[in-house]
UniProtKB/TrEMBL annotation:
Protein name per the record: Trypsin-1
Lineage per the UniProt record: Eukaryota, Metazoa, Ecdysozoa, Arthropoda, Hexapoda
Protein's UniProt keywords contain Transmembrane: no
BP term (GO), one: proteolysis
A GO MF label: serine-type endopeptidase activity
Alphabetical list of InterPro entries matching this protein: Peptidase_S1_PA (IPR009003), Peptidase_S1_PA_chymotrypsin (IPR043504), Peptidase_S1A (IPR001314), Trypsin_dom (IPR001254), TRYPSIN_HIS (IPR018114), TRYPSIN_SER (IPR033116)
Coiled-coil residue spans: none
Signal peptide coordinates: 1-20
Designated gene of the protein: TRYP1_2
């Protein structure tokens, strides 16, 4: 049964024995400065979603992370791999720019920009990530990287530490409306056949990168790491012109 699970974080690290031809792609806690573009969107002082810094004043995240919220309710924490360490830097938010075609029922056009109240200072722990080109594409089974502060198991336990994992892009031969009702051309899917490496609650809005460029944004999935079910990501290449028009990047 198809289930729209909106808030999708890095799943369990352990991987079942692989079948022939299947990669075993694990996950780990990140080191300081390893993913300098990764930010935590905080709602009333608690981690809410992930995001990616694309300029000193602009962040890309998922629309469902900002819809219904106000900038005064949220802050951005950047420059830390551990939200409890106290070494992150906090920034206020000037405004949200939500894609005008975002559909909260289908999660189509699930993309939002966040404009900061003041620019961040780039350093070893805070940096920007480049964006995939318009309509950029990669072959099925290309290895991508996901990262986030979200839940690490099906019990939705939040570690407060940044994790990352390698996942594979899935072919459009499988990721199409026939097999995945609701998928559109603004979505891509990625995961691991075992289902044990995936995105989960709290990772929404965070990055999926290929070749050190932002290729996707965590959007929705089938719970946390269901076997044979990929997670869905907003396809940055399909919305590249809108991002440039509204962010200047």
């Amino acid at each position: 049964m198809f289930f729209l699970f909106i808030f999708v974080s890095l799943g369990a690290i352990a991987i079942e024995p692989a079948t022939a031809g299947t990669r075993i792609i694990g996950g780990n806690f990140a080191l300081a400065g390893q993913f300098p573009h990764q930010v935590s969107l905080q709602l009333r002082g608690r981690h809410h979603c992930g995001g990616s810094l694309i300029s000193p004043t602009m962040i890309v995240t998922a629309a469902h992370c900002t819809i219904g919220q106000t900038p005064s309710q949220m802050r951005v924490i950047a420059g830390t791999a551990d939200l409890l360490a106290g070494d992150g830097k906090s920034f206020g938010i000037a405004k949200f720019i939500i894609h005008p075609q975002y559909n909260s029922q289908t999660q189509d056009y699930d993309l939002s920009l966040i404009q900061l109240s003041s620019p961040v200072t780039l350093d070893d722990n805070i940096g920007v990530i480049g964006l995939a080109d318009m309509e950029a594409n990669h072959a099925a089974d290309t290895v991508a990287t996901i990262s986030g502060y979200g839940a690490i198991n099906g019990n939705l336990e939040l570690p407060n530490r940044l994790k990352y994992a390698r996942v594979q892009l899935w072919s459009r031969d499988f990721c199409n409306p026939k097999n995945i009702p609701g998928i559109t051309d603004r979505m891509i899917c990625a995961g691991h056949p075992s289902g044990q490496v995936s995105a989960c609650q709290g990772d929404s809005g965070g990055p999926l990168t290929v070749d050190n460029k932002l290729f996707g944004v965590v959007s929705w999935g089938f719970g946390c790491g269901a076997a044979g079910k990929p997670a869905m990501y907003t396809y940055v290449g399909a919305l590249r012109s809108w991002i440039k028009q509204n962010s200047g990047v």
